[in-house]
Design goal:
With 164 residues, the protein is α/β, with parallel strands linked by helices. The chain is built from five helices and seven strands. It has one domain: Rossmann fold. The two termini are 21 Å apart.
Length: 164
């Protein structure tokens, strides 16, 4: 039996309606493609992606910084890490690929952890970074939820046929 891809989704905890809906669509598409989604388990992008996963009957894992009661209502499996913000490393490391949507400094740290560990990072309306400020970003930019999911799955060696 082929194991389900695990994709981490990171992003701002204070998402605008546009960013929230992007995250929700990413969640629906990932669940439709049979992925397990890992995120930080709280609000904003994390809630949006978990909501989308839930709407498609998929599985989301929320790696919470502290108490399990911090989980948004759509997380399938909430896990209390007790690590505070250090849990960002666990979120970034858990997936085979990372999709970053929007974001503030916590998201930036997760992008750094993921890139440092060699994970492909797909950016959707998020930070643009490069190592020397001039070279192209080591991230892969996407302009739509569909493109972000397609790129993440391609980077894990899987096909995405737009099921979702």
């Amino acid at each position: 039996m082929d194991r389900a891809p695990v994709i981490s989704v990171i992003g701002t905890s204070t998402a605008s309606p546009e960013i929230y809906e992007l995250a929700r669509e990413v969640g629906r598409l990932l669940a439709g493609a049979g992925c397990t989604v890992v995120c930080g388990g709280r609000g904003g992008v994390m809630e949006g992606v978990c909501r989308g996963v839930s709407e498609r009957g998929g599985i989301s894992v929320g790696l919470l910084p502290g108490d399990i009661r911090e989980a948004n209502p759509y997380v399938t499996i909430p896990l209390s890490t007790g690590l505070g913000e250090v849990r960002n490393f666990a979120v970034a490391s858990a997936g085979e690929a990372v999709i970053s949507i929007g974001g503030a400094f916590g998201t930036l740290s997760e992008i750094g952890f993921a890139l440092r560990s060699g994970k492909p990072v797909i950016g959707l309306k998020t930070w643009r970074i490069s190592e020397d400020g001039k070279s192209p970003t080591p991230m892969i930019e996407a302009s739509t939820a569909w493109e972000a999911v397609r790129l993440a799955l391609e980077k894990t060696g899987r096909d995405f046929h737009g099921r979702g």
